[in-house]
């Protein structure tokens, strides 16, 4: 009987694990963040994949050497074709100066 009570109590605690007591206020910005000056982070890249003739941003990364980019492992799939875009401030503009 005591074992069953302990199990119920533990399951009750586990149910709330990872659930915030107060719902967070989410926004689309980093807390206290501000816009970067255009082209002030020249080593920041956009990793893009090709799908149906168009390119789509999937992850960011950092240029760590002339031929090397560091990004997260989950950003890469062996079945996709990728390109690295360097020097852009606004990915929605095709003819942006400096890109």
TrEMBL record:
The residues forming the signal peptide are 1-16
Where the record annotates domain Peptidase S1, the positions are 30-99
A biological process (GO) of this protein is:
proteolysis
Give the source lineage, highest ranks first: Eukaryota, Metazoa, Chordata, Craniata, Vertebrata
Q: Which domain of life is it from?
A: Eukaryota
Q: Please indicate if the UniProt record lists S-adenosyl-L-methionine as a keyword.
A: no
One GO cellular component term, please give it. extracellular space
Q: List UniProt keywords, sorted A-Z.
A: Disulfide bond, Signal
Which protein is depicted? CTRC protein
- Native source organism of the sequence: Peucedramus taeniatus (Olive warbler)
Q: Which GO terms describe its molecular function?
A: serine-type endopeptidase activity
Gene3D superfamilies this protein is in?
Trypsin-like serine proteases
Gene name, per UniProt, is Ctrc_1
């Amino acid at each position: 009987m005591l074992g069953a009570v302990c199990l119920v109590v533990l399951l009750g605690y586990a149910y709330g694990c990872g659930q915030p007591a107060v719902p967070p206020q989410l926004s689309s910005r980093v807390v206290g963040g501000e816009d970067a000056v255009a082209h002030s982070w020249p080593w920041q890249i956009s990793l893009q994949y090709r799908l149906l003739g168009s390119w789509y941003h999937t992850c960011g990364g950092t240029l760590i050497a002339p031929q090397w980019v560091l990004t997260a492992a989950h950003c890469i799939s062996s079945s996709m074709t990728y390109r690295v875009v360097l020097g852009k401030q606004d990915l929605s503009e095709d003819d942006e100066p400096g890109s």
